Amino acid sequence: MTNDLDALLTALYVKIDDEITDTRWLGRPPRLTDSELVCLAVAQAMLGFTSESRWLRFVHSRLGKMFPFVPKQPGWNKRLRAALPLVKRAVRLLATDTDFWFDNQGSSTPPRSSAPSRPTVKRSDLAGWAGYGYCASHSRFFWGLRLYLVCTPTGMPILWPLANPKLDEREVLTAMLDREPDTVTDRPGLLVITDKGFASKEFETDLAMCGAELLRPSFKREKRRKGESLLKSVRQLIESVNDTLKGRLDLEQHGGRTFEGVTVRVAQRVLASAAAIWHNHKTGQPITRSLIAYDH
Q1: Which domains occur in the chain, in start order?
Q2: How far apart are CA 284 and CA 189, in angstroms?
Q3: What is the largest CA-CA distance in the chain?
Q4: pLDDT for 218-258, tens place per residue?
Q5: Has residue 111 got a pLDDT over 50?
Q6: Which of 65, 79, 192, 199 is the most buried (most CB within 10 A)?
Q7: Using CA atoms, how far apart are residues 119 and 123, in angstroms rounded to an integer?
């Protein structure tokens, strides 16, 4: 099998069309199918188009043979925002179709910023959901949302929510695991790897009751924790996943201005990352997180 964007989109289309798109339309079905919509969403993120108008012009001129019909910008925007459940199902489908699904998992929390100015904050439709937070790795405050990502050691996304940055990280992760308890119960001896922000005896006890163990760096006043020697390489993995989402897939430049717009555009980038890992795994590539074959 070849390993380029065309091959990825073809394989993804077949996978989605065979296993997800079971919608029965009343009346005339849309000219752009759900499978084609998902493939185009992945291609847009892979190729780095943050402007929808530029993206649709590119599709008409370069991808017309693969996608004979693409709606105009208002129609594309409406279909994409309505496709959030489909995109989330596609992420889970690709994750379960790899050998990584039952691996131990790591949790990372890359921040993403939105509008920096106070007038923009007051006018934003995200007011009340987004908020001010602090990014320790960049030593700066931001206004926006925080993406919590639970992934396997290969970087395959498993769980991900967007949350107000003022919320306690442990509460968010606990809510994620409560919502999808099978993530823990189906994996005996699960090791959840986090940073120091998740330090809490109560949180560790709750994880232990679910059958999972927390691995995090120790504080200076603490005795060295079991397995801490493994954290250096895992930290590099987390930073690599963050860099892929923010540096290669333009996570912070999605352009969403509403609840639906922000959520589906973040989901679009998580799906692009999952699709690349899935296809690299299926084609036997040595580096499963690499996007080099798909970004041109």
Answers
A1: 101-254 (3.30.420)
A2: 28
A3: 67
A4: 888 888 887 777 777 777 777 888 888 888 999 888 888 78
A5: no
A6: 192
A7: 6
> Confidence class of residue 54 from pLDDT cuts 50, 70 and 90?
very high
Q: Give the closest residue to 15 by CA, choosing from 291, 271, 296.
A: 271
What does 43-100 look like in DSSP terms, one character per residue? Answer: HHHHHT---HHHHHHHHHHHSTTT-S----HHHHHHHHHHTHHHHHHHHHHHHHTSTT
Sign of the CA dihedral 45, 46, 50, 55? negative
Residue 293 and residue 8: Cα distance in Å, rounded? Answer: 10
Residue in the block written with tokens 């489908």: 93
User: Quick one: how far is CA 270 from the chain centroid?
Assistant: 3
Q: What are phi and psi of 169, to 5 degrees?
A: -60, -40
- Nearest CA to 40 out of 85, 89, 76 is that of 76
Give 157-165's long-range contacts (Cβ < 8 A, gap of 24+): 157/91, 157/95, 157/270, 157/273, 157/274, 158/95, 158/101, 158/105, 158/183, 159/183, 160/266, 160/270, 162/262, 162/263, 162/266, 164/129, 164/130, 164/131, 164/133, 165/111, 165/131, 165/132, 165/133, 165/134
Phi, psi of 122 (to 5 degrees): -65, -30
- Are β-strands 149-151 and 131-135 bridged in parallel, bridged antiparallel, or unpaired? unpaired
Query: Which structure tokens are listed for 217?
Result: 């760096």
Whether the per-residue pLDDT at 209 is higher than 80: the answer is: yes
Q: Name the residue among 110, 103, 20 with its Cα closest to residue 288.
A: 103
